[in-house]
From TrEMBL:
Cited Gene3D superfamilies: Vaccinia Virus protein VP39
PANTHER family (UniProt xref): METHYLTRANSFERASE-RELATED, TRNA N(3)-METHYLCYTIDINE METHYLTRANSFERASE METTL6
InterPro entries, sorted: Methyltransf_12, METTL2/6/8-like, SAM-dependent_MTases_sf
Any one cellular-component term (Gene Ontology): cytoplasm
Region Disordered, residue ranges: 1-20
GO molecular function annotation: tRNA (cytidine-3-)-methyltransferase activity
Subcellular location as annotated: Cytoplasm; Nucleus
GO BP field: tRNA methylation
Keywords attached to this entry: Cytoplasm, Methyltransferase, Nucleus, Transferase, tRNA processing
SUPFAM superfamilies: S-adenosyl-L-methionine-dependent methyltransferases (SSF53335)
Family label: Belongs to the methyltransferase superfamily. METL family.
Name of the featured protein: tRNA N(3)-cytidine methyltransferase
Length: 305
């Protein structure tokens, strides 16, 4: 999977923010940030494919059969649970960049000492959750995932403290979050590399489910795979499920988002979009001497008051 090393992002110096789905601007930010990456840009232009890449994607038209697709949907939870059985807590790196992003979300606080209530939706084994709880002692976080194993790993973590955290199992596409989280009670929700794992037909349901627990004025912080990320171009034929949607060898799935697609999803679910931008960087794969283009999409939106 492509996000194993997806861990730290420098303080973004953003181009002008936008909230409409169509405006296209040039990327202007170039941020040196860590030795193995050459640069990072943040902005509103999608990555441009070279002719070879464009041809590869164009040629890959055969979709996985409906029968197999239905099986993948039925077994989505099982496949993620097996993923955590194989990898335990070792796969994803801690995502410390969310705490930097949360600097901005501190604006959610109406007064400095206010305890912030957070929900980490699709928390995995807590790679976002624990750095966040460590960095800001005045946060209480709900955390949910549909993999029972992942939730158990979170609860077993020495940093798990029930006074500061409540982890529970929940399939965001069908279990009502209101069973575990009071309505209109959460200041900020993080949805980090989760929506890409969900069938596009059910993404809207997930966003609506989250909407119910957010406070009016509360924020949703979204980060996920962007269109033409290196991992999208690596899929061989026979792995395509639909437009920008693929299945990995282990049965877990991955969607690659354009800014317009996310904009439509979020606005249809009632959110007000504040930031919606591509984060692009070139990572050097030292072993193979290759420059690898990574693309992520990062959004911030709020539930209107
Ligand atoms: C790529 S992992 C990211 C985990 C975590 N957010 C992080 O950044 O480390 C995707 C996670 O989404 C969870 N997930 C996928 N579909 C889900 C669903 N329908 N409901 C709840 N969790 C889901 C998976 O179990 C997995 O833990």
């Amino acid at each position: 999977m492509g996000d194993t090393k997806e861990a730290c992002v420098t303080e973004p110096q953003r181009t002008e923010q936008r909230s409409d789905c169509t405006l296209r601007e040039k990327m202007v930010t170039v941020t040196p940030y860590r030795p193995e990456a050459t640069f990072q840009t943040i902005g509103h232009s999608a990555r441009i494919l070279d002719p070879e890449e464009a041809e590869k994607l164009e040629k890959d038209r055969n979709l996985v059969s409906d029968f197999k697709q239905e099986k993948l949907e039925r077994e989505a939870q099982k496949n993620w649970d097996l993923f955590y059985k194989r990898n335990s807590t070792n796969f994803f790196k801690d995502r410390h960049w969310t705490t930097r992003e949360f600097e901005e979300l501190k604006a959610c606080r109406e007064f400095p000492a206010q305890k912030l209530i957070v929900l980490e939706a699709g928390c995995g084994v807590g790679n976002c959750l624990f750095p966040l709880l460590e960095e800001d002692l005045n946060i209480f976080s709900y955390a949910c995932d549909f993999s029972p194993r992942a939730v158990e790993f979170v609860k077993q973590n020495p940093l798990y403290n029930p006074e500061r955290c409540n982890a529970f199992q929940c399939d965001l596409t069908k279990d009502n979050l209101l069973e575990n989280v009071p309505a209109d009670s959460v200041d900020a929700v993080t949805l980090i590399f989760v929506l890409s794992a969900i069938h596009p037909d059910k993404m809207q349901l997930v966003l609506e489910n989250i909407y119910k627990v957010l406070k009016p004025g509360g924020c949703l912080l979204f980060r996920d795979y962007g269109l033409y990320d290196h991992t999208m171009l690596r899929f061989k034929t026979g792995h395509k499920l639909g437009s920008n949607f693929y299945v990995r060898q282990d049965g877990t799935r991955s969607f690659f988002f354009s800014d317009e697609y996310v904009c439509r999803l979020l606005t249809a679910a009632g959110y007000e979009l504040l930031v919606n931008e591509y984060v692009q960087r070139e990572t050097i794969n030292k072993k193979e001497g290759l420059c690898v283009p990574r693309v992520f999409l990062q959004c911030k939106c709020k539930k209107p008051k």
